[in-house]
Structures are given as C-alpha cells and as structure tokens.
Specification:
nine-stranded mixed β-sheet; 12 helices
C-alpha cells in the first residue's frame, strides 16, 4: 500500500520522565521497560488492577464487502454452539505476506513494520454483528445511540448515551478521578456532526441526550487535558463557591417562592451547577506526569499520516499520565489521495455495491477505510504497545482500540458490521482470533437480487457486542441494562433467544 508522502520535521512533542518514556522525531524513539526494582517494597503484593482505556475509530459510509473486511470463512474452522441450529466459528489469525505488506484481510493490511506478528496476536476481527434496525445514515448508533439516524427506523427508538459516555461517568470505570482532567476526548476532522452522545446532566444521568462536541486541533486537545492555572494561586476560591450562595438562595426561595421556578428552569439551573462542579474538579485534578513539554505543531498544520501521529501523541500522553482514558475519533469523509473534487458520497460510496468485482469504486473505498485503520488506529496501537505498564504487559494490553464504520457491506444497511480491535482490555478478550458469529446454515437471503444481500448469513445482535465492550471495561450490566432489555441500546424488540442473551459474553471471545 502507498503511504502519504508529505513529511514534516515535527520535532520532539513531549517528554514524560516520571512515566519513563521518551518521544523522538515522528514517533517513539525509546520506551523504557517497567523497572520492578525501582518500585516501593511491597507494591507487588498489593497491586491494584490496571486502569483500562477505550478508543474507537468511526469511518463514514461503510460499504466494505465481506470478502474485503474479513478473512475467508475457512480461516475460522472451529465451531461452538450458540443456540440450537446456530453454530459460531473461530480461528487463529495468521499473517499473509502481500508484497512488502502483511495482511489479515484486504482491509486489515499494512506495511510489515506496522502490522507485525506481535500486533496480529493482539488483534480481533469480528464478523456477523448485525443491527436489528435499518439505520441509513448516522454516527452515534455504532456506539449505542440508535436514535441517531436520518434515514432509518430511529423514530421508534429511544435516544441513549453512547457507551463511551456510560464509561466516562461510571464509578466502576473511573474509580479515582484525582488525575482526570477530561473524562473523554472526542476528535473529528473534515465533516460536521457528532459521534458521541451523553446526558445533559451526566452526573445525575438526567436531562436530554445531547452530542459531545469534537475537537479539531491537537493543540486544543492538549490544552484540554493539561490545563494550566495561570494564577498559580493556591488560595483561589472554588468556582462554585462564587455562585453557590446565589444558587442556594434561589432554590430555597430567597427571592420569592421556589415553586415559581418551572421544572425546566430547575433542571437548567441544576445542569449549570453540575457543569461548574465538573469544571472545578478538572481544575483541581493533578496529572501524574510532571515535566511535560507542550507540543508546538498543530495537527491542522500538517497533512496525512503526520496529522494523526500528532493526535496520537496527545492521546498517548493522556493515557500514560492518567488525565483521560477514553477517546472517540470520527474520521473525515475519505482518505484516498487519488480522488479529489468529485462527490465521494455518490460517485464512490454508493457505487460500491452496483456490481460484483471488478469494481473500481469498491477498491477505492476499501483503500480509504484501510488508510484510516492503518495510519490512525494501528499507529496508536503500536505506540501504546511500546510502553510497558507492568512486568510483561503494555499499555495496549490494558486497552481496547476498536474500528468500525457506518454500514456493513452495503451502504445504508447495517448487517455484518465491520469490527476490528487491538488490545485485550486487561486480559478480558481472547485476542489473535477471527470470530464469525453468523449462522452459516441460514440461507434466508439467498434469493435476493443484490449479490451482497444474497451472500448474507444472519448473525448475532450488534448490541451484544456493545455490551461486551462495557463488560470488558469493568462496567457491570447493573449500570447500563434497562428493565426488560438485554444488550446495550434501544431496540424495537427484545424478543427471541438471541436478544435474551445479548448482555452475556459472546461465545469464545472471553479469555
């Protein structure tokens, strides 16, 4: 595959000496191992569970044919029963050399120094994850807000926070907020719109479901997670102290009967105070890294591969320093240097299912998705894997990095969603495997007039995968499961045996 060629001398971005890693030109030059002899005596005997991290990369349109997104089904020869008449399959992942690249599937292909045997053993490819409703265009539904769709069945579905926001305000995920300056980071380029959604008043889990704004500058992201108190005044009063007296007097009726406040105004007032409390907590947080040198080059000032290297440097700094542990990344419209000036949506994406191979539009579409996967998510995975977090484990081992897209093999349709992950979520997942959850014997779509639809074999519900992600991040079902529901996300129906086990670990994936 061809890498972008616009190189820039970016210089050193940061040095975090307390965490024992060094940053060199364009990437990590040196990552020192965990030095057990330097830890205080007795630490190993009382070691707490390592914090986990979650990152998801979302690309637009989908349209990656199954033969391009996944290995051939023969690569998953082992079977296990999920339900009577429905076996699931799995197999170990094995790299194949394609020129100077390594490949697990046409989508999961990269230069051999990026997709290494080590990274392949920390990879999962999951097939047969089907959404129950037709979503059309949208973004938030891939993380559980199934009401975020402009073409599909969203009118009958209830807005929900996306799973990143469930984690962000979960006491099980963030057990200690003392160093956390930003509960979740949301990056986006090129396209307007939103990917992550949360409650208007997240601390009380109340109010409307609203989009989380995206950041389009690596320097702005740095400033958000490493805020500087320019006053350096230890006697600075709490922000909330300045307004709490007025708030209390208003709520208690000092300026007239409190009953005059409408329920909507009370909610707005409480939401405002909640945001002030969160801001105060952020300013009081103390990052576990000191001696940080802020970057001086913004990702917006460079292009292609280097742009996302700069973002990834900031993400790694946040994860290592404990200032944030969640990130969502909304890709731009496409990453294919050979296409410019046309209508990608109509000329490429919606032509990818017009006819079987050879299909030039499908080849271009796969190349675009692959560039995002390789130069954003794999690049981040390798950086995290270069930093040891403990004896025999890296920051990647205690993370889950997930790639998915807006649609499955056909644009606008959401069966067989492409999911590729890196990292084992602290040993929760059995990685290095290809999982195929389809019922290969179910040929109910074989007579479809569309060649992609005719090859469809129904699988399991995508919302079970989202439940598995939450479980892997130590967020128990008691924090997100609704009465009468299973899995994560609003559905039009929770009937049937597949749905009744949608809060359980998927077969074979749990270590």
């Amino acid at each position: 595959m061809t890498r972008p060629t616009d190189k820039h001398d970016l210089g050193p971005v940061y040095v975090a000496r307390r965490r024992l890693f060094l940053k060199g030109l364009g990437g990590f030059a040196l990552a020192l191992p965990f030095l057990e002899s330097l830890t205080p005596r007795g630490v190993e005997a009382q070691e707490a569970p390592k914090p986990k991290r979650f990152v998801t990369l979302f690309t637009h349109h989908g349209g990656i044919w199954s033969e391009n997104a996944f290995p051939h089904e023969s690569k998953a020869p082992n079977a296990a029963s999920m339900l009577p008449g429905h076996d699931v399959h799995w197999g170990d992942l094995h790299l194949e050399a394609v020129g100077s690249d390594n490949q697990l599937s046409p989508l999961v292909r990269a230069p051999s120094d990026i997709l290494t045997p080590t990274l392949a053993q920390k990879t999962m490819i999951l097939r047969g994850l089907d959404m129950e409703s037709w979503m059309g265009h949208g973004q938030g539904f891939v993380l559980g807000n199934n009401a975020d769709s402009n073409l599909g069945d969203q009118d009958s579905l209830e807005p929900r926070p996306t799973i990143d926001q469930v984690m962000a305000y979960s006491p099980s995920f963030y057990r200690d907020l003392s160093s956390v300056t930003l509960r979740s980071m949301h990056l986006g380029q090129d396209w307007d719109g939103y990917f992550a959604f949360g409650y208007e008043n997240p601390s009380s889990q109340s109010g409307a479901i609203i989009p989380m704004p995206t950041i389009k500058s690596s320097l702005a992201l740095w400033s958000s997670i490493f805020p500087v108190d320019e006053t350096q005044d230890e006697s600075r009063p709490l922000i909330v102290d300045r307004v709490y007296e007025s708030y209390h007097r208003l709520r208690s009726g000092a300026w007239g009967a409190a009953s005059r406040l409408s329920s909507q105004d009370k909610s707005r007032l409480d939401d405002h105070m909640d945001r002030l409390l969160e801001l105060e907590r952020k300013l009081e947080a103390a990052a576990s890294c000191s001696d940080l040198t802020a970057p001086t080059v913004d990702a917006d000032d460079v292009g292609g591969e280097q742009q996302w290297e700069l973002y990834n440097d900031v993400l790694v700094a946040a994860f290592v320093c404990g200032t944030s542990r969640i990130a969502t990344i909304r890709a731009g419209s496409h990453w294919y240097p050979g296409f410019s000036g046309g209508d990608w949506h109509q000329e490429i994406a919606h032509m990818s299912d017009a006819n079987p191979a050879p299909n030039q539009q499908e080849d271009i579409l796969v190349a675009s998705h692959r560039n995002w996967l390789v130069f954003q998510l794999m690049e981040l995975a390798n950086k995290l894997d270069a930093i040891e977090e403990g004896p025999g484990e890296t920051f990647l081992d205690n993370s889950l990095l997930m790639f998915t897209s807006e649609s499955g093999p056909m644009t606008h349709f959401n069966w067989e969603m492409p999911v590729v992950t890196f990292g084992g979520a602290g040993g929760w997942f059995q990685t290095g495997r290809y999982y195929d959850f389809r019922n290969r014997e179910n040929t109910s779509h074989a007579n479809s007039s569309n060649f992609l639809e005719a090859a469809r074999r129904p699988g399991v519900r995508y919302n079970q995968w989202l439940a598995n992600v939450l479980l892997s991040m130590d967020v128990p079902a008691s924090e997100w499961e609704r009465p009468g529901e299973k899995g994560y996300g609003s559905m039009s129906s929770f009937d049937g045996p597949l749905m009744q086990q949608a809060s359980d670990p998927l077969p074979m994936v749990k270590a």
